[in-house]
Structure prediction request, 710 residues.
Amino acid sequence: MSKPEDLEKGSKLPQPTAWKSNEMLKRVKGRYRSEGRFKAMGFAAICAAIIALVLLVGSIFLTGIAGFSQTYVKLDIYFDPAVLEEIQTSSGEDLENAFISANYAKLTQDSLRKLFPEVKSRREVFRLFQFVSPGSRTQLQNIVREDPGVIGKTQSLWILAADDVDMFVKGKISRNVAQSDRKVSDLQIGWIDSLSADGRLVKRFNWRFFSSGDSREPELAGIWGATVGSFYTLLVTLIVAFPIGVLAAIYLEEFAPQNKITDIIEVNINNLAAVPSIVFGLLGLAIFLNVFQFPRSAPVVGGLTLALMTLPTIIIAARAAIKAVPPSIRDAATGLGASPNQVVFHHVLPLSMPGIMTGTIIGMAQALGETAPLLMIGMVAFVVDIPQGIFDASTALPVQIFLWADSPERAFVEKTSAAIIVLLAFLVTMNGLAIWLRQKFERRW
Amino acid sequence: MNIQAADTNITTDREPKMQARRVNVFYGDTHALKDVNLDIYADEVTALIGPSGCGKSTFLRCLNRMNDTVASCRVKGVMTLDNEDIYSKQVDVVQLRARVGMVFQKPNPFPKSIYDNVAYGPRIHGLARKGDELDEIVFTSLQKAGLWDEVKDRLDTSGTALSGGQQQRLCIARAIAVNPEVILMDEPCSALDPIATAKIEELIDELKGHYAIVIVTHSMQQAARVSQKTAFFHLGNLVEYGDTVEIFTNPQEPKTKDYITGRYG
Prediction:
């Protein structure tokens, strides 16, 4: 309490501040200026970030969009009984062999020769035969298998064109370049032009890209194998990392005594989140492959390795979410006679679940985009088959991108970008889901 | 001595519901409560008053061992409920808290439906065998808390959607639902407007016949209005304890007199 004497002691009352003086006005102006400068810098930073993003995504999109279409050529295929004789004559196991070993290439070759009867020299004929993709053999085989009655008849079919033809049709190979410098010769360009004029060349949506595994032929290569591999890998990651991460977070937040050891564990979890991912890959190689002798290149190993990497992310996110549950809720439950376990599992965990889910999804998205650890445990192999389970050899989406980016064929460039678009779509979806979850379940106390 | 002061002022020969003898509480190195002796009687409201930081809330939280959740807190001395030491190893703290319920300063309903809020306690203690029994408990608890008429049509809306005063009465209903013997209230009206406060005070008056109630309050008027016994705490000491009428009309200690006349605090 201030007493009257105190006031009298400070008899020299301060002068009223001169708010209108020049000095003050200068201060005000300076304040506005610095504020304006800061705003401009912030705006510039945002602009730079947006431009970088647009350039990145834009360039990938422009290259990748072509990867979603593929060139087909219309050929009149005569299912020559002479070529397919064995199929007609054999039965049982022999029939199966006959289906596989029949010379389907001859059918397309005959058809091509009929289209261009003027091609005579061996070299040119060889070139002509390269016009269609080797994948056409499987296509014809399937048709014959489905209906052997087709033998002896002629069918007009859209056959997958070879990647060089596809590249030329898409304009990736310019006809203005000297012949010696391009993969498509003048002769081939002549054929392409003539087929185009006949309406025998068409670009179609590339369903095969979404349904098949990897291939050495760009026109046959697809991402389904890598997508399934990624799915199995993430499944293992989720099953391992989510329960362990959440339980660890609950224990640390709600039950662990506050002492030196808990502090050390806490610091180490934070450090673990900063460890480069390739180190986790080496760890996976050393432990899962060398010690436990798990199969190489398998999603189970990739998943376990990525789980190690994702654990700290989940633990940190879960701890933050658990911490955000107000103590008053814990008090309320404790005050009613709920045991610590009941407090956690009836109240704290359900209330923090949206936050935990958000963190988990972001951790999963990180794991989905991770390449380096998978290289270390051998998920970088050339795998054609679609993996059927977590123990089958497989690749993952980012590794597939890495592999294709390494391939020499021109047509893999657009496949790489197309695969990146698919991967980005997955990541955006997952992050969008995380944001949606956060907003839907966000609570304010 | 305070002990004598506390003992001599009591003018009853009834058996106390809860007793505190030479209770000392430490938070780390801080000595928060010093040698407190206090009796709490059933069918009565005991008010704990005193300036902030005097230890009245600490004392309250010792009565149902809520202080156990504070790692640095140590409690010494004897506290009994029906002559049984509540800090002994034989006592299950979960059951103790069911017998000694608590209402907090800030209304803290669970973010669940009104029904689930009230039904939570009976559910975890297995007090209701069938759904009908649970319905009955929820109905009586809400009615006792004077909230039934306001919420009977929306039992499945969230408890957090109610107004502050309604939330606090919901919290009281929730505490009543486990059928406690003692209800502790930690400044239950400090976050409420005067009208909601009046309703809670009315409610406390109605409840006092069924439960022993201990209420911490900053409002001396409130203590005078609702309580039969008042304890005045200062700097961790129980300065004076006695019938509310006595404390407010004829305080024995000069400190008590200063506080209730608004000289400090």
Remarks:
- Chain B touches chain A at residues 64, 66, 69, 71, 94-98, 101-104, 106, 108-111, 120-121, 124-125, 171, 174-175, 178 (CB under 8 Å).
- The radius of gyration of chain B is 18 Å.
- Residues 2-260 of chain B form a domain with the Rossmann fold fold (CATH 3.40.50.300).
